[in-house]
Queue: 3 jobs
Job 1
Amino acid sequence: MTILAWTVIAATVLISAFVQGSTGMGFAMILAPVITFIEPRLIPVMLLVLMIPLNFYVAAREREHIDWTGVKWISVGRFAGTFAGLWILVIINLHQLSLLIGWSTLIAAVIALLAPKFTPNRTLLASVGLITGVTETSTGIGGPPYALAYQHSPGPELRSTVAVCFLVGEVISLIVLAFSGQVSADTMVTTAWMLPFLAVGSFLSRYVHHRLDGPVLRCIVLGFAIVSGAIVIVQA
């Protein structure tokens, strides 16, 4: 990887961590297309590893607002979807993976953007977990389904609940990927170099997260995801 490519990924990690820490979503939607364009072999392990400390911080920061019922039902579906995601990752090549990341980002973001206001029930939450298990294990992207389920919830509830759901799912996916031989030492070393940038972005988000509790920023994040997904599709 060139110095320029490393710098671009590092800067994107910082920005993505700031957005996720501020809004509760956006990290993988912003970072995955950039990594896919520069170094697709790092997908999905780098995303999953980086999101563990990020989401632990977000969940701890607003822990009193966590919707534990939602976490339970999403986690049930998430576990089942992990194995389907692993199967997809094994049978497709990097070119197909790029297309999958692009289309999954684009479609999920459009759905989340256009969906009418509703209150999620157990069936929907379990379905969200199932879909996320497939997409996050295979591509590292899991935010759009969570955003769809909690997009009309108060900001603190969305951020904290989605962070806990991410944590559970990321641990499950990494364990399954490790046992299947998908986690390499080279990827882990590159990921470790990104941790300081993740920490800076997460820290900066503490100064603005309490001010972001409306539809405007959600539309900005999802709009960026739509553009990013489209760029990856064109490039692939």
Note: The radius of gyration is 16 Å.
Job 2
Amino acid sequence: MLPASASSAATVVVGYKGSTAFHTVRTTNAVATIARLKRSARVRYAVPNVVAHATSTGAYLPDDPGRGVKPGRWAAVQWNFTGPAGVDAPDAWAHLIAAGRPGAKGVKVAVLDTGVAYRRFGRTPASPDLAGTRFVAGHDFIGHDDYANDRNGHGTHVTSTIAETTNNGIGLTGLAYGASIMPVKVLDDLGEGDAPVIAQGVRWAADHGAKIINMSLEFDSTVTRDVIPELIDAIAYARAKGVLVVAASGNEGDPAVAYPARNDNVLSVGGTTEHGCLADYSNTGHGLDLVAPGGGDDAELTDPGCAYGGKPGRNIAQMTLIGVHKDKIGIPHSYEGTSMAVPHVSATAALIVASGILGADPSAAAIEHRLEATARDLGPRGYDKSYGWGLINAAAATDPAVPVT
């Protein structure tokens, strides 16, 4: 039922006995008019006219200017958040504002990557659009210290998609802008890392309170689970502690999901384009769970709902390190891949947790099921090996009106 107010008390609604119709009476003194009408034996009711207001807060549209200076232009750049092939961030943001935890406030998301440009480090600047983002203690397993600094840009780009400061008049927006980011550096400055180091990062994040672990990384197709037992064990350890681990399906266009995403304890994510199509690089096959915007070219498929535009779609825009020496901050055009898709899912998972839809501390399995049950079906009806359960839908996943199944 919609809440009501008596803001139109200068109008009185009158119902008469023996009739289902009602009449309205304009008056300058509603109280006196109602009292007079109620004295009549013919009157069944006389009440002030009240006005209902929709319970929805409406879509939240922040002021971030994108690549320009005009407020609100972020939406023209971030098709992945607002476009027909996007995840519907504005409505998801409104749901979390209504729940009192805007942008997944308080949920810890560990980003296992090349680090994050969250503070100045030598010649490497801090991203100004992460200045308002909350960071909790992280760790650098490459340099063996407590400061997971980024000199590559990949980890900063991923982190910005998850939790870039939003409505601050700078750059772009983050899907779970209120989340707490735990930066864990497991990839070196070339973007490479070995299984034992990544396994250490997974265990460290799980032990330090991460609810979600984002791994925008993959091994090549020759790597099987038997080759990375330490990482498989670490992921199982995190899952047992209630942590949702999200990883990339891989960028080779292979008909098999890469590890670690292929592991049963990992939510695997493929990539889609601005046209709502499977991306040509995205690995498919058994174990693929969901897809999310990754940018790039469409795969050569004739899928229902794939609106091929005749030219490549845009990539995923975010503020990160740019330049030969990675000594500047900008919004490059070059980032595409399942690495870019994964943070959309991790961020939506954080929004689900913060929303309280699944309770105060939902299990990893419950979060995963909610993500899959509310995804937008793409390709053949139902689950398929190209799109999994479909395109992540942050608005539906956080909508209290959508039943929890």
Note: Confidence is low (pLDDT under 50) at residues 1-9, 52-57.
Job 3
Amino acid sequence: MADADPKISGAAKTDAIVVEDEAAALFRVNRRAFTDPDILAREREHIFSTCWLYVGHASELKKPNDFLTRDVGGRSLIFNRDRKGTFRAFFNVCPHRGAAVVRDKAGSAISFRCFYHGWAFNNNGQFGSRFEADTYPPDFNSDGCANLRAVPRLESYGDFWFVNYSSSGESLGEYLGGAKEVLDLIADHSEVGMEIVGGTQEYSIRANWKLLVENSFDGYHASETHSTYVDYLADATGYGAQMLMTNRPSLSRGVELGNGHAMIEYIAAWGRPVAQWIPTWGDKGKAVVDAKRKRLEELHGPERARRIARANRNIVIFPNLVINDIMSLTVRTFYPEEPGRMNVQGWALAPVDEEPDFRRTRLENFLEFLGPGGFATPDDVEALESAQRSYRTIDAPFNDISRGMRRAEKYHDDEEQMRVFWREWRRRVEGVA
């Protein structure tokens, strides 16, 4: 049954989930997208089984034989380096009877052994068990049936590693499109490399995964939803809260990066350990920041150095890799367990050679704003769960994502970046270009 909306022109009144009317500058998303199990099934087939999905950062596997296990797109994976140091990814499923082969979150091992029947595998995935004569035919495993099954495709851009469960389709480089330039900016935070710091933050949200996509680069909600943090930031920086809440930052823009990827970029008042000083860091901190800025300019020139040091970015790489390059640098993914529940994983990323004081500041920023118990995440979780609960009210069927459609240049607090995501979602799930 079609959901009617009197504000949408007759030509655009359909039962489609995503409805865009350029002439009227209206963009609507039917709330069934967040509640319908059949839509989630289509997403599993057309998004999570065919897109490039982030599996981990190279720094998490520093040495040969290191491994970690991670759930990616509904599959449990072993992401590891073999004895020669080659990066690999296997389905964490024993080919014998299907038990999980590796049950530890991370570690170092030259081989893996299933606890159920003891089948063993080298860390390059090759079957390594020995049996008495006549237990199996002489040519057993000649077709590789007893080896760990590798994911169809594993590729990296810089130190960011991705898997794809489809054996065909575009390469990772083609898929990332304009997002590669943003990943390069992040890599340029340090001339000696970046690393994941500490462990994984893990939590669940009782809301649809696409709500967190929208929220992750939604510049419109910040001053309202996070007003407590705005007040805190005003005290910490010396700026007035009203100025922070009402003045649009410079370099305010929403940017399409191709293939459903998008970001917002803007200047904000908080300190950035990469090279934006605030008074609470004192004279010693200012000297360190000034030296960092000078080195960035030597390496990359004044304009690129300014973007690295001062410009904040919230990026979504379709479908669900979020990188928040703000007062700290956060990597986050999330996957649906059901239409109204997702599991979230987050990590802090930092320069390998960062000074101890600034590393501490970075992690404090990470925890106090983006951590599950910080200023921002509990606010966001409440907003997303509140929306999810309200979607049971079928008499209000559409979300509006039209803000800024008439503007030629999109601001960071417009909603173009969300429309970019939904257009790609529509192309993949609804088959509409």
Note: The CA atoms of residues 103 and 281 lie 43 Å apart.
